[in-house]
Amino acid sequence: MPDMEVLLTRLRTEPGETPGGKILRVAMCPESLKSACTKLGIPRLRHHDLRHLFATRCIESGVDIPTVARWLGHKDGGALAMKVYGHLRNQHSQEMAKKVKF
Predict the structure, then answer these.
(1) Could you tell me how many helices (H) and strands (E) the chain has, helices first?
(2) Considering only CA atoms, which of 76, 75, 82 is closest in space to residue 55?
């Protein structure tokens, strides 16, 4: 996500920040997300929503589900991720099939 990369790069280079330093303490995340959503006037986001977005974007980009499951810390070989995200693979496959010309 190019816009996110620009934002995080800017935050890391602000005065007083060290390159490679942490952007935000984990304990501050829920309140920071809530505050940002309120300021933007959008429904509340939780870290789980961002985790779901990450997994969805990975799968839609072509990363296989077992790999995404490992990145998410799942130990079941991708069984849970397949139940949750398996439909994305079908949608992606159908979209790709539309590109094939005979």
Answers:
(1) 5, 0
(2) 82
